[in-house]
Each structure stands twice: as C-alpha cells, then as structure tokens.
Amino acid sequence: MIERRRTLLTAAAALLAGCGGPRVDTRFPAISQGPRVDLLVIHYTVLDFADSLRVLTQQVVSSHYLVDVDPPTIYRLVPEERRANHAGVSAWAGRVLVNMSSIGIEIVNPGRIRTPTGEHYAPFPPAQIDAVITLVRDIVTRWGIPKDRVVGHADVAPGRKQDPGPMFPWKRLADAGLALWFDEALADELRPRFEAALPPLPWFRLRLAQLGYPVPGAPADELLDAPTRDVLVSFQMRFRPATYDGTPDAQTAAILAALTQP
Questions:
Q1: Is 3 noted as a catalytic residue in this protein?
Q2: Which of these is catalytic: 3, 80, 81, 106?
Q3: Structural domain ending residue among the three candidates 122, 153, 175
Q4: Domain containing residue 135
Q5: Assuming Cys at both sites, which of 25, 52, 219, 234 could form a disulfide with 154, CB separation 3.0 to 4.6 Å?
C-alpha cells in the first residue's frame, strides 16, 4: 500500500511538473491595464529598399514593418508582440520609452533630395500610401489604437527627427479614419481672431501638450526657445506642410484651436 501510494504521488508530481509552471489564480483582474501596444509611429527610411532592409534587419535599429515602393510591398521584420528599436529617444502624451508600447512602420522614401531648384522632400507614390493605409487600418483595428495615437517620428522626437516629413499625406490617413485631422472650416473661421491678437507662447505650449507633443522647458516662459520651435516645426510639418518654420503664427494657432477646443 505504501509503495503504491508513493508511486501515485510520484506520478502526480510528474504530471504537475509537465504543466509548465505553477498554478495561477486569474479571478481578480486589475482595472488598471490595457493593451501592450497603444501607439503607431510612421517613419521614412532615407535609404533605398536594399539598404533599408539591411539596416533594419542587421543593425541595432529595427522596425516592425517596412513598406517598399516598386511594387508596393509590406514586409514584417519584427513580430508585433516584440519590441522594435525604431523610435529612439522619444515621448508622446507624457509617456517616454515609446519603443516599449508602439509599432513602427518604415516607408522606403529618400526624405530630402537635391533637385535643380534646391533641396526638397520626396513625395510618396499613391500606390505606396495605399499599402500603408491598408497596413495601418489592420494594425489599429486589431490593437484598438485611436487615431490621435497614430503619429510620425517627428511628433515623438521633435528636432531630432523629421520623418515622415511634410510630403507624407496625413490628410489621406485622416480621411480613411486612421489619423487625427482638424476641422478646416473651423480653423478658417478662427484665424481672423488670432490675426487680431496672437495668443502668448504658453498658450501654444499648453495646446501642443494637450495633443500629446513632448513640450520641453518652462510652460509659462514667454521666450521662443529652440526646443519649443522644434515642436512647432513638427506640428506644422504635419498639419500645415506648406510652411514649417516653427513660427507661432495665427494660422498655426487656428489649427491648434480647432484640434483642441471642446
């Protein structure tokens, strides 16, 4: 009897060991939790496809996806449940270490190019953007990422990064319901008010921070410092790409107000 009992205990222990770990009680879920991924960051590569693929797969930097241009092809380089090193030193909506909670999409695009008329940002072919939109829609649907958390590298790293640049068609993503945009009619209506009396610089900082931008320095400082100008450049590059000099002007104020007012 004793020997039989010992055999049963040994068999039970072996069975438990084969279950892969301790028994865990999951009856009490915390209310303070959410998906691991709640941000999507869009980049351009500055390189051609071959060099982009080499850098993003063989060096320290990486990205979850790479979107080629000819033909438009989507490559997955890092599984979404794993971290990719795509954002670097960055922040959004008060959260730093953006790599830990985001998915990165790199788009094959040369960025700034030299032309006979000077340096310009290269456009994105419509078919390539179609592929990007398809990919973004799939990602944000599966992860529940809201459109105000679909951002560019320049948004999370102002001054340090400029991608995806002023030629990226954010309005197309917004029209597809995938990115934030402003009420253009409301901005036009508000602009004369700001032309008559431009808000003080703390007003701009407050509204930019409300959107999620990492606004540095003293919020109440009336001086336009370089970091604040960098944030304004990123904002203008995205929402007013015709002029992105970092000047807190009336049109910028009107767009900010249209985006942030109740």
A1: no
A2: 106
A3: 175
A4: 39-175
A5: 234
